[in-house]
Amino acid sequence: MTTDVIVTHVDADELHARVEQLADLLVDTVDGGASIGFLAPLDRAEARAWWKERATGVAAGQLAVWAAHAGGRVLGTVTLAFPDKPNSRHRAELVKLMVHRDARGRGLGRRLLTTAEEAAATAGITLLHLDTETDSPAERLYDAAGWTRIGAIPDYAAAPDGVLRPTSIYFKKLIPAAPTR
To answer: Which CATH number does 6-173 carry?
Structure first.
């Protein structure tokens, strides 16, 4: 992993300021075959609109987004989605972990995952969960990072090429961070 990559928390204003770079990342991720909710080819305007819609959730505290950037480019992102029900405030869902194809294989996915896990623990979250395409490279990342796979749902979502694929469900228990004074 190159040391010039910086991972920062993204607020709603920065999301709007970086929307073109975020759209580029989303298009590249989908075009690269990652099953993250979109079909290929993904139109840039659709990618831009999707990110702009996320700004509302970020501003409301329903989503927390981190971006990895270097040289004026966003190379990856990860998001935590927080439930709004009183009985589920101890957990969050890890969503949309993306790494640009140019930056893969250098530890950036693991760095983003660790950033989200540490931020969740600091916020008092004790349980994370996610779903990912079965037999995808993402599964190797989650397995190596200590996540627990609890099963798979057949034909859960269409891959970018439109073919229905199974999805694996994972969770990870977190130890809340000690309060700081």
So the answer is: 3.40.630.30
**Rounded Cα–Cα distance for residues 109 and 111 (Å):** 5
pLDDT (tens digit, 9 = 90+) per residue, 88-132? 999 999 999 999 999 999 999 999 999 999 999 999 999 999 999
d(CA 125, CA 181): 19
- The span from the CA of 142 to the CA of 113, in Å, is 9
Per DSSP, the residues of 6-20 read EEEEE-HHHHHHTHH
Rounded CA-CA distance 36/97 in Å is 9
Closest by CA to 49, choosing from 19, 14, 24, is 19
The alpha carbon dihedral of 120, 75, 68, 40 has a sign of: negative
- Domain parsing of the chain, residue ranges: 6-173
CA 9 – CA 174 distance, rounded (Å): 20
Cα 145 from Cα 165, distance rounded (Å): 23
- Reported pTM: 0.94
